[in-house]
């Protein structure tokens, strides 16, 4: 075998050896235990702290909002999509009298125009609703910078929720 081929083969052999050693050293212990994945990742995810309570929990104490929402266009939105993770709130809020909720248990109230824009801002890439059907898979878009921006009389910027009830828009 010519010398330059021998060198090439040797170089490949060295790299292959290095690769096999590194693979053994770096491979997580639980890899391959039950399949071609890191088995521990399931345990790690399962042991993460919970933050969300789920809408069923909310309706126990906030029947009014729940009922309003059920009949409206926002029926399919989860409470926590707007109010943020509420597990702690759900567990402890009833220990306090009205209006005395400590800050750590308070939830956000997304009442600014930008909060609604998150879903409703006109976006050329989104599918448009052409005919007036109740199809909750598509979101109606408005130009948040223009749509009913100012009060006709006072010319003051208006919040979306001054005209639309967020729980039944
Ligand atoms: C589209 C976003 C959105 C969703 C979904 C939503 N909310 Fe709200 N919620 C708001 C906004 C905005 C306010 C503040 C309204 C205001 O200040 O008048 C609010 C206010 C509230 C309040 C305070 C009412 C008060 O009188 O101060 C409660 C309680 C509440 N929401 C519970 C819920 C529950 C329970 C659900 C699920 C059934 C829910 N919300 C779903 C946006 C939302
Ligand atoms: C165990 C009863 C209970 C559960 C469950 C519960 N809440 Fe509340 N919530 C309260 C009480 C009590 C208040 C305080 C009322 C007050 O201060 O007037 C409150 C206030 C709120 C407010 C107004 C916050 C503020 O700063 O004024 C929002 C928004 C809210 N809850 C949303 C939710 C959502 C979303 C869920 C579900 C993840 C939920 N709540 C679950 C009892 C509960
Ligand atoms: C997480 C996404 C999301 C957020 C945030 C959100 N919406 Fe919606 N909204 C929807 C979906 C989904 C529908 C149902 C589909 C539709 O009719 O566009 C809807 C429907 C509506 C409609 C009914 C449109 C019609 O057909 O007449 C109005 C009005 C509306 N939302 C206003 C608001 C306002 C005001 C806010 C802010 C407080 C808000 N939305 C926040 C997702 C959202
Ligand atoms: C001054 C009152 C007023 C304010 C403020 C207002 N809206 Fe509206 N909105 C209306 C009325 C009335 C309609 C129905 C007639 C129309 O489309 O002009 C409507 C329609 C809508 C629709 C349905 C559009 C469609 O294609 O059917 C959406 C979505 C909406 N508004 C979201 C918002 C959002 C988001 C904000 C805040 C950025 C907002 N609105 C602020 C009065 C208001």
Structural summary, described in words:
- The chain is mostly helical and 169 residues long.
- It folds into two domains: 3-46, no CATH class; 55-162, no CATH class.
- 38% of the residues lie in helices and 0% in strands.
- The chain has seven helices and no strands.
- It has helices at 3-26, 40-46, 55-61, 63-70, 79-83, 87-92, 113-120.
- Helix 3 packs across helix 4 (63-70).
- The longest helix is centred in the first third of the chain and has 24 residues, at 3-26.
- It is elongated, with a radius of gyration of 28 Å.
- The chain starts with a helix and ends in a 49-residue tail after the last helix.
- The relative contact order is 0.10.
- The model has no long low-confidence stretch (mean pLDDT 91).
- The structure holds heme C (4 copies).
- The site of one heme C has 18 residues, from helix 5 and helix 7.
């Amino acid at each position: 075998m010519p010398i330059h081929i021998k060198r090439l083969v040797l170089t490949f052999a060295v790299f292959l050896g290095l690769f096999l050693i590194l693979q053994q050293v770096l491979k997580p212990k639980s890899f391959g235990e039950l399949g071609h994945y890191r088995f521990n990742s399931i345990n790690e995810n399962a042991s993460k702290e919970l933050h969300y309570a789920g809408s069923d929990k909310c309706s126990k104490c906030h029947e009014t909002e729940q009922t309003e929402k059920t009949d409206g266009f926002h029926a399919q939105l989860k409470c926590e999509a707007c109010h943020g993770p509420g597990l702690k709130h759900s567990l402890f809020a009833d220990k306090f009298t009205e209006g005395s909720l400590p800050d750590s248990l308070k939830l956000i109230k997304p009442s600014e125009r930008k909060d609604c824009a998150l879903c409703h801002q006109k976006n050329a890439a989104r599918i448009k609703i052409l005919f007036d059907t109740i199809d909750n898979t598509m979101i109606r878009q408005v130009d948040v910078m223009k749509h009913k921006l100012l009060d006709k009389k006072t010319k003051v910027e208006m919040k979306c929720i001054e005209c639309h009830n967020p729980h039944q828009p």
